[in-house]
Design a protein that fits this description.
This protein is an alpha+beta fold. The protein is built from 25 helices and 34 strands. The radius of gyration is 34 Å and the shape is globular. The protein starts with a helix and ends with a helix.
C-alpha cells in the first residue's frame, strides 16, 4: 500500500471518531438543574449620553442604567445614590443580560431593608467578534474606561470607586480597563469575571496576544493594589470556555460554580448569568462587602476584609448565608456534659438523648493519640456557627480531664452538597495539632440544636489506608475494557480518595447498592473531581436514597501528560460517604468516545497549527517529487516522532483527515458547481459595475490571464478597506482560476481523444508504438493535471492563511456604515496577506522536480523545516498564544515556491 493510501486509511477513520467524540462532548452534558431568576418588576434600560466627542468616536457603543418599577423615574432623572456596579457583556452579549443580577439585588435590598442599594449600569458593545479580533477589544476597553468616568461623576465625589462584573470576554475588558491611561486603579475596587477565557482557545492576531501578555505582566501591580479580582467558571457544562481556561494568575480567587457552597451545579456559558443559586451567592457577597458605618455607605476599602467575604461565600462557607467573623479563642461554658469516646470511627446521634432529663449542651471529645494523620468530622443538622475547637485538657471535672477554652476551628469546615438536611464536613490533621501541644478536638452541641436528625460522624484514620492509586492500565486502546480498581468501604468510614495518573482522560465509577445500618435509611454521599488545572473541584456527582439502583457516573478528566505540563499533580476523586452505610465502588477507564471527547474538550485548538504544518510538508513532497525510499522513511520518521513526542498524534491524524476531506470538497465543487460559481461571480460583477455579461466575462478572464493586474487591483483594495477583504477576494479569484484550469484541461483532453481516436490510441498503447506528437500531447496532459493538483494544494494552504481574516472581514462588514476603512486591523497579519497576494501575482505554476536549475530539493528541505517548526510550536504547553505565527509560516513557504521560476530563469540565462 502506498503512503498516500495508508494516510487516507488511517486519517479518515480517526476524523470520523473525532467528530463522534466532539458530538458526544457537545451533546451529552449533565442536565441543567439551575432555577431561573425572575424580575421584580418590568425591567427598563435608560440610555446615558456620553460626551459628543466620545459618542462620535464610538457610535456603535452605548451606556445604560438599569431600573425597575418605582426606581425608573429616579434613574431617568439621572439621580443615583447607591453603590455603582458596571456589567460588561461578552462576545455577542447583550446589555439585557444584567437584569438577573440587578433584579435579585433590588429584591434583597427591599427584603432585608438595607440602608443602601446597588445602582447597576451596563454597556451595549454591539460586537460579536471580540473573542477573535483584538481590535474590537481595544475599542471596547477604551469606551468602558470613558463610561467609568461618566458613572463616577454622577456621585459627586461621594463614591470614588466602582464594581466591574464582566461576562466572557467582558472580563478581559474589565481587566484591560485598568491599563487605560485615564483610569486610576483606585477607581475600581472589585472585578468579578464570569466564564472569562484567561487562556484563550484562539489567539488569531497579535492584538489579542499583546493584550494577554500585557495583563500577565501587570500581575504585580494588580496584586499590590486594593482591587479584589475573582474569576468564576461554569464547569463541564460550559463548552465555550472550559474549566482550565478560567484560571487567572492575577485573580485573588479562582473557583468553579461546582465548588461554590449552596450552588454545586455546573452552568453553561449563558446560564451562569441567570442561575438563581449562583446569582444569589454573588449578590450576598456584594452586600457583605459594604461598609455601612458611614454617612454614605460604600464598599469596604480593606482588601483583606473583602477577600475574606468572597472566600466565605464562594469557597469556604461554613455556616449561614451572611458573613461573620469567627472568634479565634472561645471560653467553654460550665455545666455541660463532656463525652470522650476512644473509638476511631463512630457516629453520635442526638436521637438517643431526646426524651431524657439531661438537656445541657454536650461536648464531644476526640483524643489526639496514635499515628493517625487525618480526622474527618461530618455533621448533619447541626446549626451552631461555633461548634468545633481544639484544646488542651488541663482541668479535671469528675473523673475526666476537660478543657476550659479552645481554639475555634469552625471556619475550617464547609457545608456539603446533597441530602435532606444541612451537612458540614471538615478534615483536620492530628499530627499538626499535636505539634502545637493540643490534646483534644472538641465538638460543642448546644442544647437548642437537639433534634432527631442531628448526628455527628467521627472518622479518625491514616490517609494512606483510604487512598487508592490507580493507573491507566491496558484497556484495549481505551475501548472501555480496563478496570482501574474496586473500593470496599468500611463501616463508619467517611472519606476515601482515588489518585488518578496524568494519562487518564476519563473515568467511570459504578456505585452498587449501599448496605445501611437502618432499613429505608435516607443516605447521601458525594464524589468530587479535583483537577490541578482548575484549582479546585471541577465536577460533583451526588448519589442519594432517591435512586437505589446501581448507578454509573462519568467524569472527564484532563490528560496533563499530553499537555506537556511538568510537575503537575494528578487528578483526585474525593468520596464523601454516609458513615451509616457501606459502599462498593468499581472504577473503570472511560470508553473510547469519552477519551476522544476529553481530547476535544481541551486540545481542539491544536488542529489549526497541525494542519498548517502538514500542508507545508505535503507541499515539500510535491516540490521534491518522488523521494527515494530511505529519504522518504527519514522524513516520515521525523514527522511521526514529533507528533508522538509532542502528544499530538491523534490530532495529527485528524488534521490529515480534514485536509483530505477539504481537498475532496474543493474538487467536487470545481467539478460539479464550478460553472455555476463562475456564472454567479460574473453576474455579481456585472451588477456591481453595471456592465454587460460579455464585458464582465472578459474582465474575469483578464484577471485570470493577467495575475499582475489582479494583484494590483487587490493591493489597491487594502488601504481603502482592509487586508482581510483583499485576501478573501484573492481566494475567490484563485477558485475561479481552478475552475478555468479544469475546463481547459477537459477541453484539451476531449480534443486529444477526437483527434487520435480512442480505439487507435488503445491499439498503439498495446503495441508500444507511440508517435512523437502523441508523446507531446500526453506530456501536455500530465502537465495540466499536475498544474491543477498544484493549484489545489496552494489554494488549501492560502485558505488556512485566511482563517484569521474571518473576524476582520466580519468586523469590517458590521461597521461598514460607520467607516469603510478598518482602522484596527492587525498590521502584522495584513502584511502577511499582502505578501501572499503579491507573490501570487507572478502566476505560480507547476515545475517538474526533474528540471535542473530550480533547486527543488533545497526548497523542499526548507519547507519541511517550516512544517516541522509549525508542529513544534503547536505541541508546546500553551500553543494558542502562537497561533498568529501560522500565516508567517505559510508566507515563508509560498514565497519560496513563488520565486522558483525566477531562480530557473536566471539559471537558464547563465547557461
Amino acid at each position: 500500500m502506498s503512503p498516500y493510501y495508508l494516510c487516507v486509511v488511517l486519517s479518515l477513520p480517526a476524523l470520523i471518531i473525532y467528530l463522534l467524540g466532539a458530538a458526544q462532548y457537545l451533546s451529552k452534558q449533565e442536565k441543567n438543574t439551575c432555577q431561573m431568576t425572575y424580575m421584580f418588576e418590568y425591567p427598563q434600560y435608560v440610555h446615558i449620553h456620553l460626551e459628543e466627542e466620545i459618542q462620535k468616536q464610538y457610535p456603535q457603543y452605548k451606556l445604560y442604567a438599569y431600573a425597575e418599577g418605582f426606581a425608573v423615574g429616579r434613574i431617568q432623572s439621572m439621580r443615583f445614590y447607591g453603590i455603582p456596579v458596571l456589567f460588561i457583556p461578552g462576545n455577542a452579549g447583550s446589555h439585557h443580560q444584567v437584569r438577573s443580577l440587578a433584579s435579585v439585588s433590588l429584591r434583597k435590598s427591599l427584603k432585608d431593608r438595607t440602608p443602601f442599594h446597588f445602582d447597576f449600569f451596563t454597556v451595549d458593545l454591539n460586537e460579536e467578534y471580540s473573542a477573535l479580533y483584538g481590535g474590537v477589544l481595544k475599542g471596547q476597553t477604551k469606551f468602558v474606561a470613558h463610561c467609568i468616568q461618566k458613572i463616577l461623576r454622577f456621585y459627586s465625589g461621594k463614591i470614588d470607586s466602582i464594581i466591574l462584573i464582566g461576562h466572557s470576554m467582558g472580563g478581559i475588558v474589565a481587566k484591560g480597563v485598568l491599563l487605560e491611561p485615564n483610569i486610576t486603579i483606585s477607581q475600581v475596587n472589585t472585578i468579578i469575571m464570569l466564564a472569562t477565557p484567561h487562556m484563550a482557545a484562539l489567539i488569531p492576531d497579535t492584538y489579542i496576544a499583546a493584550i494577554h501578555q500585557k495583563l500577565k505582566h501587570s500581575q504585580s501591580s494588580f496584586n499590590n493594589s486594593g482591587i479584589v479580582t475573582l474569576s468564576i467558571g461554569g464547569g463541564p457544562r460550559d463548552v465555550v470556555v472550559n474549566s482550565n481556561q478560567v484560571i487567572d494568575e492575577i485573580a485573588d480567587l479562582n473557583v468553579l460554580t461546582t465548588q461554590i457552597p449552596s450552588v454545586w451545579k455546573s452552568t453553561d456559558h449563558l446560564a451562569i448569568l441567570w442561575c438563581k443559586e449562583f446569582v444569589l451567592v454573588v449578590i450576598r457577597a456584594l452586600f457583605d462587602t459594604v461598609y455601612v458605618d458611614t454617612k454614605y455607605p460604600k464598599i469596604n476599602t480593606d482588601k483583606d476584609y473583602r477577600l475574606k467575604v468572597f472566600n466565605y461565600h464562594f469557597l469556604e462557607r461554613s455556616a449561614g448565608k451572611k458573613f461573620a467573623q469567627y472568634k479565634s479563642k472561645v471560653q467553654f461554658d460550665s455545666g455541660g456534659e463532656w463525652i470522650e469516646d476512644i473509638r476511631r470511627q463512630y457516629t453520635w446521634k442526638a436521637l438517643d438523648r431526646i426524651g431524657t432529663n439531661n438537656k445541657s449542651q454536650v461536648y464531644l471529645m476526640i483524643r489526639l493519640i496514635g499515628r493517625q494523620d487525618r480526622l474527618t468530622i461530618q455533621t448533619t443538622n447541626l446549626e451552631a456557627r461555633n461548634w468545633l475547637f481544639a484544646c488542651t485538657a488541663s482541668s479535671i471535672e469528675g473523673n475526666s480531664r476537660v478543657c476550659d477554652w479552645g481554639w475555634n476551628l469552625s471556619n475550617k469546615s464547609r457545608i456539603m452538597p446533597g441530602g435532606t438536611h444541612k451537612t458540614k464536613i471538615v478534615d483536620l490533621d492530628p499530627v499538626e495539632l499535636k505539634a502545637l501541644h493540643l490534646t483534644h478536638v472538641v465538638i460543642r452541641v448546644p442544647a437548642s440544636n437537639f433534634n432527631k436528625w442531628l448526628s455527628i460522624g467521627i472518622d479518625l484514620h491514616e490517609k494512606g489506608e483510604r487512598r487508592v492509586n490507580v493507573g491507566n492500565k491496558f484497556n484495549a486502546i481505551g475501548l472501555g475494557f480496563g478496570k482501574l480498581g474496586t473500593i470496599e468501604t468500611s463501616n463508619a468510614a467517611i472519606r476515601y480518595e482515588v489518585n488518578l495518573d496524568n494519562t487518564t482522560d476519563s473515568v467511570l465509577f459504578k456505585l452498587s447498592h449501599p448496605q445501611c445500618n437502618q432499613k429505608n435509611y435516607r443516605h447521601h454521599s458525594a464524589v468530587e473531581l479535583l483537577e490541578p488545572g482548575t484549582n479546585g473541584i471541577s465536577q460533583v456527582r451526588l448519589f442519594t436514597y432517591h435512586d437505589t439502583t446501581p448507578k454509573i457516573f462519568k467524569l472527564q478528566t484532563r490528560n496533563t501528560a499530553k499537555d506537556n505540563v511538568p510537575g503537575i499533580k494528578s487528578p483526585i476523586l474525593r468520596f464523601t460517604l454516609d458513615p451509616e452505610c457501606v459502599y462498593t465502588i468499581e472504577l473503570w477507564h472511560g470508553s473510547l468516545m469519552e477519551t476522544v471527547a476529553s481530547a476535544v474538550r481541551y486540545r481542539w485548538p491544536n488542529l489549526y497549527g497541525i494542519i498548517v504544518g502538514l500542508l507545508l510538508l505535503i507541499l515539500a513532497k510535491y516540490i521534491d517529487g518522488e523521494l527515494k525510499l530511505v529519504n522518504s522513511a527519514i522524513v516520515t520518521t521525523i514527522t511521526c516522532a514529533l507528533c508522538l513526542g509532542l502528544g499530538i498524534g491523534l490530532e495529527a491524524l485528524v488534521a490529515l483527515g480534514i485536509i483530505h476531506v477539504c481537498a475532496a470538497v474543493v474538487c467536487c465543487t470545481v467539478i460539479l458547481l464550478g460553472s455555476t460559481v463562475y456564472n454567479m461571480a460574473n453576474r455579481f460583477l456585472a451588477r456591481s459595475l453595471k456592465f454587460s455579461m460579455t464585458w464582465t466575462d472578459w474582465i474575469l478572464g483578464g484577471l485570470n490571464q493577467l495575475p499582475l493586474l489582479s494583484a494590483t487591483i487587490l493591493l489597491a483594495v487594502v488601504p481603502v478597506t482592509c487586508g482581510a477583504l483583499a485576501m478573501f477576494l484573492f481566494l475567490v479569484l484563485q477558485f475561479l482560476k481552478l475552475v478555468k484550469l479544469y475546463e481547459d484541461y477537459l477541453e484539451k483532453l476531449l480534443l486529444a481523444i477526437l483527434r487520435f481516436g480512442i480505439l487507435n490510441r488503445f491499439r498503439r498503447t498495446q503495441n508500444n508504438h507511440r508517435s512523437k506528437e502523441e508523446d507531446e500531447k500526453e506530456d501536455d496532459g500530465d502537465s495540466d493535471g499536475n498544474q491543477i493538483a498544484f493549484q489545489l494544494l496552494l489554494f488549501l494552504i492560502w485558505c488556512t492563511a485566511a482563517i484569521p481574516a474571518i473576524p476582520s472581514v466580519l468586523v469590517w462588514a458590521k461597521n461598514y456604515r460607520y467607516s469603510t476603512r478598518l482602522e484596527t486591523e492587525d498590521p502584522f497579519l495584513m502584511m502577511c496577506w499582502t505578501i501572499i497576494i503579491g507573490c501570487a501575482s507572478g502566476g505560480v505554476t507547476w515545475i517538474s522536480p526533474s528540471k535542473l536549475g530550480y533547486f527543488s530539493s533545497e526548497i523542499a528541505m526548507v519547507l519541511r523545516v517550516l512544517g516541522w517548526g509549525a508542529l513544534v510550536v503547536t505541541g508546546i504547553g500553551y500553543p494558542q498564544q502562537y497561533q498568529y505565527l501560522m500565516p508567517p509560516f505559510i508566507v515563508a513557504g509560498t514565497s519560496l515556491v513563488a520565486i522558483r521560476p525566477l531562480i530557473g530563469f536566471r539559471s537558464l540565462i547563465r547557461r
